[in-house]
Amino acid sequence: LAEIPTVGRLFQAKQLAPVTTPFAPSKTLNNTISIIRNDITKLKIDCIVNAANESLLGGGGVDGAIHRAAGPGLVRECDGLDGCDTGDAKITSAYELPCKSVIHTVGPIYEFEYRKDSCRPEQLLRSCYRRSLEVAVANDMRSIAFAAISTGVYGYPSGQAAKAVLDETRKFLEMPSNIGKLERVIFCNFEERDMEAYKALTPVYFPPT
Ligand code: AR6
């Protein structure tokens, strides 16, 4: 974990352009958040969050990469979970992965949910992150890394996703009952466009101190 820099450290090292933000700067919160570009299956932390589908039985993208790296034990355990609703999250062991547990969340299919109600994709994406963080805390996880849920084949625009994710995460970490529970929350991106979105938006939600 010490090798993964937090935004607290990055903001100290770099002079950032002034940001307009309604959020108070917090050294503690900034030392909790990391933005990295990596293969999430390589992270030696407590838990990683998979962008699954409602069946929980595997698929392409990061889901495929996680199942391949974990080995067949993972799909056997997932098979016993009776699927997962969109916006919810369930935890399993990590099998051959270097992390301890995997949290599987199901993000919204952007266009499908948007057609029902334009607010639904954001509500469901926020719910994915909130539920994953709740499940992590309930299972005594101290460090968690998120793949960029829904921004691949499910089509959620990167910038809009990053806004909802950072806002929901800040709110979660600030709740009195959650303070001190998570040592590190890592946003583990794969695509440059997600990195750009997080780099631009993190100082708004976690302003430099
Ligand atoms: N590590 C980190 N991020 C990754 C990795 C990796 N190894 N591989 C891909 N990504 P997606 P979704 C990024 O499509 O949009 C599956 O078939 C990827 O570049 O994996 O939520 C499921 O079974 C993108 O930025 O998930 C579902 O059916 C992000 O992970 C469906 O896809 C999410 O892209 C879920 O779609």
TrEMBL record:
Residues 20-206 form the Macro domain. Signal peptide: none annotated. This is Macro domain-containing protein. The chain holds residues 43 to 251 of 263 of the full protein.
